[in-house]
Amino acid sequence: MRAETFRAVAEAVRAGEPVVVASVVESDGSAPLGADMVLRPDAAPEGSFGQGDLDAAVARDALGALDAGRSTTRHYGPRGEARGQAVAVFLDVYAPPPEMVVIGAVDFTAALVDAAKLLGYRVTVCDPRPVFATPRRFPRADEVVAAWPDRFLEERGGRLGPRDAVCVLTHDHKFDVPALLAALRTGAGYVGAMGSRRTHAERVERLREAGVDEAGLGRLMAPIGLDIGARTPQETAIAICAEIIACRTGASGRSLRELDGPIHKAVAPA
Amino acid sequence: MRDVLDEVDRWLSAGQAVALARVVAVEGSGPRDPGATMAVSAEGEVAGSVSGGCVEGAVVQEAMGVLAEGRPRLCTFGYSDEQAFAVGLTCGGTIRVFIEPLTP
Protein backbone atom coordinates (compact mmCIF):
# COMPACT_ATOMS: atom_id res chain seq x y z
CA MET A 1 0.00 0.00 0.00
CA ARG A 2 1.21 3.47 -0.82
CA ALA A 3 1.97 5.55 2.29
CA GLU A 4 -0.13 8.24 0.59
CA THR A 5 -3.11 5.85 0.62
CA PHE A 6 -2.54 5.03 4.26
CA ARG A 7 -2.52 8.76 5.10
CA ALA A 8 -5.72 9.36 3.11
CA VAL A 9 -7.46 6.63 5.11
CA ALA A 10 -6.11 7.91 8.41
CA GLU A 11 -7.37 11.41 7.65
CA ALA A 12 -10.82 10.23 6.58
CA VAL A 13 -11.23 7.90 9.57
CA ARG A 14 -10.21 10.62 12.02
CA ALA A 15 -12.62 13.06 10.38
CA GLY A 16 -15.43 10.46 10.46
CA GLU A 17 -15.70 10.54 6.66
CA PRO A 18 -16.44 7.49 4.49
CA VAL A 19 -13.65 6.00 2.37
CA VAL A 20 -12.85 2.69 0.64
CA VAL A 21 -9.39 1.36 -0.19
CA ALA A 22 -9.39 -1.11 -3.08
CA SER A 23 -6.27 -3.33 -3.23
CA VAL A 24 -5.24 -5.95 -5.79
CA VAL A 25 -4.62 -9.03 -3.63
CA GLU A 26 -4.42 -11.66 -6.40
CA SER A 27 -3.54 -11.16 -10.03
CA ASP A 28 -2.65 -13.13 -13.14
CA GLY A 29 -0.68 -10.09 -14.28
CA SER A 30 -3.69 -8.09 -15.50
CA ALA A 31 -3.16 -5.61 -12.66
CA PRO A 32 -0.15 -5.06 -10.42
CA LEU A 33 -0.32 -7.03 -7.15
CA GLY A 34 -0.62 -4.63 -4.22
CA ALA A 35 -1.81 -1.68 -6.35
CA ASP A 36 -4.45 0.40 -4.61
CA MET A 37 -7.17 2.94 -5.32
CA VAL A 38 -8.89 5.29 -2.87
CA LEU A 39 -12.62 5.79 -3.45
CA ARG A 40 -15.00 8.26 -1.82
CA PRO A 41 -18.62 9.10 -2.52
CA ASP A 42 -18.96 12.07 -4.91
CA ALA A 43 -15.23 12.27 -5.66
CA ALA A 44 -12.98 11.09 -8.46
CA PRO A 45 -11.07 7.84 -7.73
CA GLU A 46 -7.45 8.28 -6.62
CA GLY A 47 -5.04 5.76 -8.15
CA SER A 48 -5.53 3.23 -10.95
CA PHE A 49 -5.09 -0.47 -11.70
CA GLY A 50 -3.99 0.43 -15.22
CA GLN A 51 -7.16 -0.56 -17.10
CA GLY A 52 -10.08 1.88 -17.34
CA ASP A 53 -12.93 -0.65 -17.35
CA LEU A 54 -11.45 -2.48 -14.36
CA ASP A 55 -11.04 0.83 -12.50
CA ALA A 56 -14.67 1.73 -13.23
CA ALA A 57 -16.00 -1.66 -12.07
CA VAL A 58 -13.97 -1.48 -8.87
CA ALA A 59 -15.08 2.11 -8.18
CA ARG A 60 -18.74 1.10 -8.61
CA ASP A 61 -18.42 -1.98 -6.36
CA ALA A 62 -16.47 0.02 -3.75
CA LEU A 63 -19.36 2.43 -3.28
CA GLY A 64 -21.78 -0.50 -3.08
CA ALA A 65 -19.63 -2.08 -0.35
CA LEU A 66 -19.60 1.27 1.45
CA ASP A 67 -23.41 1.38 1.42
CA ALA A 68 -23.49 -2.15 2.82
CA GLY A 69 -20.91 -1.12 5.43
CA ARG A 70 -18.90 -4.28 4.86
CA SER A 71 -15.37 -5.00 3.61
CA THR A 72 -15.25 -7.75 0.98
CA THR A 73 -13.15 -9.30 -1.81
CA ARG A 74 -14.42 -9.19 -5.43
CA HIS A 75 -13.14 -11.09 -8.45
CA TYR A 76 -12.86 -9.60 -11.94
CA GLY A 77 -11.80 -10.40 -15.45
CA PRO A 78 -8.94 -8.39 -17.00
CA ARG A 79 -11.39 -5.68 -18.13
CA GLY A 80 -13.47 -5.60 -14.97
CA GLU A 81 -15.82 -8.43 -15.97
CA ALA A 82 -17.80 -9.48 -12.88
CA ARG A 83 -16.73 -12.78 -11.29
CA GLY A 84 -13.77 -13.18 -13.60
CA GLN A 85 -10.68 -15.01 -12.48
CA ALA A 86 -7.93 -12.56 -13.45
CA VAL A 87 -7.88 -10.23 -10.48
CA ALA A 88 -9.07 -10.32 -6.86
CA VAL A 89 -9.63 -6.90 -5.29
CA PHE A 90 -10.12 -6.37 -1.59
CA LEU A 91 -12.54 -3.52 -0.85
CA ASP A 92 -11.61 -2.24 2.61
CA VAL A 93 -14.56 -0.17 3.80
CA TYR A 94 -14.33 2.63 6.33
CA ALA A 95 -17.87 3.74 7.07
CA PRO A 96 -18.43 6.57 9.55
CA PRO A 97 -19.11 5.29 13.08
CA PRO A 98 -22.69 4.31 13.91
CA GLU A 99 -24.64 6.78 16.03
CA MET A 100 -26.26 6.34 19.41
CA VAL A 101 -28.64 8.94 20.78
CA VAL A 102 -29.24 8.64 24.52
CA ILE A 103 -32.35 10.47 25.68
CA GLY A 104 -32.21 11.47 29.34
CA ALA A 105 -29.22 12.71 31.35
CA VAL A 106 -29.89 10.31 34.23
CA ASP A 107 -27.58 8.26 36.43
CA PHE A 108 -27.52 5.36 33.93
CA THR A 109 -26.53 7.61 31.06
CA ALA A 110 -22.83 8.09 31.79
CA ALA A 111 -22.22 4.33 31.96
CA LEU A 112 -24.14 3.77 28.71
CA VAL A 113 -22.10 6.51 27.01
CA ASP A 114 -18.87 4.79 28.11
CA ALA A 115 -20.04 1.35 26.92
CA ALA A 116 -21.22 2.77 23.59
CA LYS A 117 -17.86 4.51 23.05
CA LEU A 118 -16.14 1.17 23.67
CA LEU A 119 -18.25 -0.25 20.82
CA GLY A 120 -17.26 2.61 18.51
CA TYR A 121 -20.47 4.65 18.49
CA ARG A 122 -20.64 8.39 18.05
CA VAL A 123 -22.78 9.25 21.08
CA THR A 124 -25.14 12.18 21.64
CA VAL A 125 -26.87 12.76 24.97
CA CYS A 126 -30.09 14.81 24.86
CA ASP A 127 -32.11 16.07 27.83
CA PRO A 128 -34.31 19.17 28.08
CA ARG A 129 -32.86 20.19 31.46
CA PRO A 130 -29.74 22.35 30.98
CA VAL A 131 -28.60 21.63 34.56
CA PHE A 132 -28.27 17.93 33.75
CA ALA A 133 -27.33 18.09 30.08
CA THR A 134 -23.73 19.24 30.52
CA PRO A 135 -20.55 17.92 28.87
CA ARG A 136 -18.93 17.87 32.32
CA ARG A 137 -21.32 15.11 33.44
CA PHE A 138 -20.73 13.09 30.24
CA PRO A 139 -17.10 13.66 29.33
CA ARG A 140 -16.98 10.79 26.82
CA ALA A 141 -20.10 11.84 24.90
CA ASP A 142 -19.36 13.36 21.49
CA GLU A 143 -22.18 15.84 21.97
CA VAL A 144 -24.47 16.84 24.85
CA VAL A 145 -27.59 18.70 23.79
CA ALA A 146 -29.98 20.56 26.11
CA ALA A 147 -33.19 20.34 24.08
CA TRP A 148 -36.57 18.65 24.04
CA PRO A 149 -35.82 15.12 22.80
CA ASP A 150 -38.75 14.99 20.38
CA ARG A 151 -37.65 18.24 18.73
CA PHE A 152 -34.04 17.09 18.67
CA LEU A 153 -35.02 13.80 17.01
CA GLU A 154 -37.27 15.57 14.51
CA GLU A 155 -34.38 17.84 13.51
CA ARG A 156 -31.55 15.35 13.54
CA GLY A 157 -33.18 11.91 13.43
CA GLY A 158 -33.42 11.90 9.63
CA ARG A 159 -29.84 10.74 9.34
CA LEU A 160 -30.30 7.69 11.61
CA GLY A 161 -30.22 4.33 9.82
CA PRO A 162 -30.09 0.58 10.44
CA ARG A 163 -26.70 0.73 12.22
CA ASP A 164 -27.84 3.45 14.64
CA ALA A 165 -29.54 3.29 18.05
CA VAL A 166 -31.82 5.46 20.17
CA CYS A 167 -31.97 4.65 23.90
CA VAL A 168 -34.61 6.44 25.94
CA LEU A 169 -33.63 6.34 29.62
CA THR A 170 -35.94 9.04 31.01
CA HIS A 171 -38.64 6.55 32.20
CA ASP A 172 -41.01 9.47 32.68
CA HIS A 173 -44.05 9.55 30.34
CA LYS A 174 -43.84 13.30 30.03
CA PHE A 175 -40.46 12.98 28.30
CA ASP A 176 -40.37 9.52 26.88
CA VAL A 177 -43.70 9.27 25.06
CA PRO A 178 -42.96 12.23 22.74
CA ALA A 179 -39.33 11.10 22.44
CA LEU A 180 -40.38 7.57 21.44
CA LEU A 181 -42.95 8.88 18.96
CA ALA A 182 -40.12 10.82 17.29
CA ALA A 183 -37.62 7.94 17.61
CA LEU A 184 -40.01 5.50 15.94
CA ARG A 185 -40.29 7.89 12.99
CA THR A 186 -36.52 7.65 12.40
CA GLY A 187 -34.83 4.80 10.54
CA ALA A 188 -32.81 3.80 13.64
CA GLY A 189 -32.17 0.05 13.70
CA TYR A 190 -32.63 -0.06 17.46
CA VAL A 191 -35.07 1.89 19.61
CA GLY A 192 -35.10 0.96 23.30
CA ALA A 193 -36.74 2.44 26.38
CA MET A 194 -35.99 1.96 30.05
CA GLY A 195 -38.64 1.39 32.67
CA SER A 196 -40.37 -1.30 34.71
CA ARG A 197 -42.90 -3.62 33.07
CA ARG A 198 -45.65 -1.55 34.65
CA THR A 199 -44.18 1.71 33.34
CA HIS A 200 -43.87 0.09 29.96
CA ALA A 201 -47.46 -1.21 29.92
CA GLU A 202 -48.70 2.34 30.58
CA ARG A 203 -46.32 3.71 28.00
CA VAL A 204 -47.62 1.27 25.38
CA GLU A 205 -51.16 2.50 26.01
CA ARG A 206 -50.10 6.11 25.59
CA LEU A 207 -48.15 5.32 22.43
CA ARG A 208 -51.18 3.49 20.99
CA GLU A 209 -53.39 6.47 21.80
CA ALA A 210 -50.87 8.67 20.02
CA GLY A 211 -51.29 6.56 16.90
CA VAL A 212 -48.34 4.11 17.01
CA ASP A 213 -49.36 0.90 15.24
CA GLU A 214 -48.40 -2.67 16.14
CA ALA A 215 -45.42 -2.62 13.79
CA GLY A 216 -44.12 0.47 15.58
CA LEU A 217 -44.68 -1.07 18.99
CA GLY A 218 -43.00 -4.24 17.74
CA ARG A 219 -39.86 -2.26 16.98
CA LEU A 220 -39.68 -0.88 20.49
CA MET A 221 -37.24 -2.78 22.73
CA ALA A 222 -38.68 -2.20 26.19
CA PRO A 223 -38.03 -2.82 28.96
CA ILE A 224 -34.57 -2.17 27.51
CA GLY A 225 -31.70 -4.69 27.72
CA LEU A 226 -30.95 -8.41 27.94
CA ASP A 227 -31.86 -10.39 31.05
CA ILE A 228 -28.45 -10.71 32.75
CA GLY A 229 -29.58 -9.53 36.19
CA ALA A 230 -28.01 -6.07 35.72
CA ARG A 231 -28.52 -3.69 38.66
CA THR A 232 -25.82 -1.02 38.60
CA PRO A 233 -25.60 1.61 35.84
CA GLN A 234 -22.51 -0.14 34.48
CA GLU A 235 -24.16 -3.57 34.42
CA THR A 236 -27.26 -2.07 32.84
CA ALA A 237 -25.13 -0.43 30.16
CA ILE A 238 -23.70 -3.87 29.29
CA ALA A 239 -27.21 -5.39 29.20
CA ILE A 240 -28.36 -2.64 26.81
CA CYS A 241 -25.31 -2.84 24.54
CA ALA A 242 -25.52 -6.65 24.44
CA GLU A 243 -29.14 -6.35 23.30
CA ILE A 244 -28.19 -3.82 20.62
CA ILE A 245 -25.53 -6.21 19.26
CA ALA A 246 -27.93 -9.18 19.36
CA CYS A 247 -30.60 -7.16 17.52
CA ARG A 248 -28.12 -6.27 14.80
CA THR A 249 -26.79 -9.80 14.35
CA GLY A 250 -30.06 -11.63 14.92
CA ALA A 251 -28.35 -13.86 17.50
CA SER A 252 -30.20 -15.39 20.48
CA GLY A 253 -28.45 -13.63 23.35
CA ARG A 254 -28.21 -16.99 25.16
CA SER A 255 -25.07 -18.60 26.59
CA LEU A 256 -23.05 -20.21 23.81
CA ARG A 257 -22.76 -23.46 25.77
CA GLU A 258 -26.51 -23.93 25.49
CA LEU A 259 -26.30 -23.73 21.71
CA ASP A 260 -24.80 -25.73 18.85
CA GLY A 261 -23.17 -24.60 15.64
CA PRO A 262 -20.46 -22.14 14.77
CA ILE A 263 -19.72 -19.23 17.15
CA HIS A 264 -18.80 -16.83 14.38
CA LYS A 265 -21.65 -17.07 11.91
CA ALA A 266 -20.71 -16.61 8.30
CA VAL A 267 -21.72 -13.16 7.09
CA ALA A 268 -23.97 -13.29 4.06
CA PRO A 269 -22.29 -11.74 1.01
CA ALA A 270 -23.31 -8.12 0.45
CA MET B 1 -6.74 -0.23 9.81
CA ARG B 2 -8.64 1.89 12.34
CA ASP B 3 -6.94 0.18 15.29
CA VAL B 4 -3.40 0.64 14.02
CA LEU B 5 -3.45 4.19 12.64
CA ASP B 6 -1.64 5.84 15.55
CA GLU B 7 1.07 3.20 15.84
CA VAL B 8 1.74 3.11 12.11
CA ASP B 9 1.91 6.92 12.04
CA ARG B 10 4.48 6.79 14.80
CA TRP B 11 6.59 4.16 13.00
CA LEU B 12 6.44 6.08 9.71
CA SER B 13 7.50 9.30 11.48
CA ALA B 14 10.42 7.42 13.00
CA GLY B 15 11.43 6.32 9.50
CA GLN B 16 10.71 2.65 10.12
CA ALA B 17 9.57 0.26 7.41
CA VAL B 18 6.05 -1.06 8.03
CA ALA B 19 4.13 -4.09 6.79
CA LEU B 20 0.32 -4.21 6.88
CA ALA B 21 -1.53 -7.52 7.17
CA ARG B 22 -5.25 -7.39 6.46
CA VAL B 23 -7.86 -10.14 6.57
CA VAL B 24 -9.34 -10.10 3.06
CA ALA B 25 -11.55 -13.20 3.23
CA VAL B 26 -13.04 -15.47 5.89
CA GLU B 27 -14.51 -18.88 5.16
CA GLY B 28 -16.45 -20.80 7.78
CA SER B 29 -16.08 -19.75 11.37
CA GLY B 30 -13.54 -16.94 11.67
CA PRO B 31 -12.79 -14.78 14.67
CA ARG B 32 -12.42 -11.45 12.86
CA ASP B 33 -14.19 -10.00 9.83
CA PRO B 34 -12.51 -8.90 6.60
CA GLY B 35 -10.65 -5.66 7.24
CA ALA B 36 -9.11 -6.72 10.56
CA THR B 37 -5.56 -5.40 10.41
CA MET B 38 -2.25 -6.09 12.05
CA ALA B 39 0.76 -3.85 11.46
CA VAL B 40 4.34 -4.94 11.95
CA SER B 41 7.35 -2.61 12.09
CA ALA B 42 10.79 -3.54 10.83
CA GLU B 43 11.90 -3.63 14.46
CA GLY B 44 9.31 -6.29 15.16
CA GLU B 45 6.78 -4.13 16.99
CA VAL B 46 3.18 -5.22 16.45
CA ALA B 47 -0.16 -3.38 16.54
CA GLY B 48 -3.66 -4.77 16.02
CA SER B 49 -4.61 -8.37 15.23
CA VAL B 50 -6.06 -10.56 12.49
CA SER B 51 -7.51 -13.39 14.58
CA GLY B 52 -8.12 -14.28 18.17
CA GLY B 53 -4.37 -14.73 18.65
CA CYS B 54 -4.12 -18.04 16.77
CA VAL B 55 -2.06 -16.96 13.77
CA GLU B 56 -0.47 -13.67 14.83
CA GLY B 57 2.96 -15.24 15.36
CA ALA B 58 2.96 -16.67 11.86
CA VAL B 59 1.77 -13.37 10.40
CA VAL B 60 4.71 -11.55 12.03
CA GLN B 61 7.10 -14.01 10.37
CA GLU B 62 5.43 -13.57 6.98
CA ALA B 63 5.44 -9.79 7.46
CA MET B 64 9.19 -9.84 8.09
CA GLY B 65 9.59 -11.79 4.86
CA VAL B 66 7.47 -9.23 3.02
CA LEU B 67 9.60 -6.37 4.37
CA ALA B 68 12.79 -8.17 3.34
CA GLU B 69 11.52 -8.92 -0.19
CA GLY B 70 9.53 -5.73 -0.67
CA ARG B 71 6.73 -7.71 -2.31
CA PRO B 72 3.19 -8.40 -1.08
CA ARG B 73 1.89 -11.93 -0.47
CA LEU B 74 -1.49 -13.52 0.16
CA CYS B 75 -1.39 -16.11 2.95
CA THR B 76 -4.04 -18.65 3.90
CA PHE B 77 -4.40 -19.86 7.45
CA GLY B 78 -6.78 -22.53 8.53
CA TYR B 79 -7.99 -25.83 9.43
CA SER B 80 -8.53 -27.00 5.87
CA ASP B 81 -4.89 -26.51 4.95
CA GLU B 82 -3.32 -28.40 7.83
CA GLN B 83 -0.68 -30.04 5.68
CA ALA B 84 0.48 -26.89 3.96
CA PHE B 85 0.41 -24.64 6.99
CA ALA B 86 1.67 -25.46 10.43
CA VAL B 87 -0.39 -22.74 12.06
CA GLY B 88 -4.16 -23.13 12.17
CA LEU B 89 -7.24 -21.55 13.60
CA THR B 90 -8.76 -23.49 16.47
CA CYS B 91 -12.24 -22.31 15.46
CA GLY B 92 -12.23 -24.37 12.25
CA GLY B 93 -12.36 -21.57 9.72
CA THR B 94 -9.99 -20.34 7.04
CA ILE B 95 -8.75 -16.79 6.74
CA ARG B 96 -6.85 -15.19 3.90
CA VAL B 97 -4.45 -12.46 4.96
CA PHE B 98 -2.91 -10.03 2.48
CA ILE B 99 0.46 -8.83 3.73
CA GLU B 100 2.16 -5.91 2.02
CA PRO B 101 4.83 -3.30 2.65
CA LEU B 102 3.84 0.35 3.05
CA THR B 103 5.68 1.98 0.19
CA PRO B 104 6.80 5.65 0.12
TrEMBL record, chain B:
- Describe the location of the XdhC- CoxI domain by residue ranges: 11-78
Top-level division of the source organism's lineage: Bacteria
Q: Which InterPro entries match?
A: MoCofactor_Util/Proc (IPR052698), XdhC_CoxI (IPR003777)
By its UniProt entry, which Pfam families does this protein fall under? XdhC_CoxI
The protein, known as:
XdhC family protein
Species of provenance: Aciditerrimonas ferrireducens
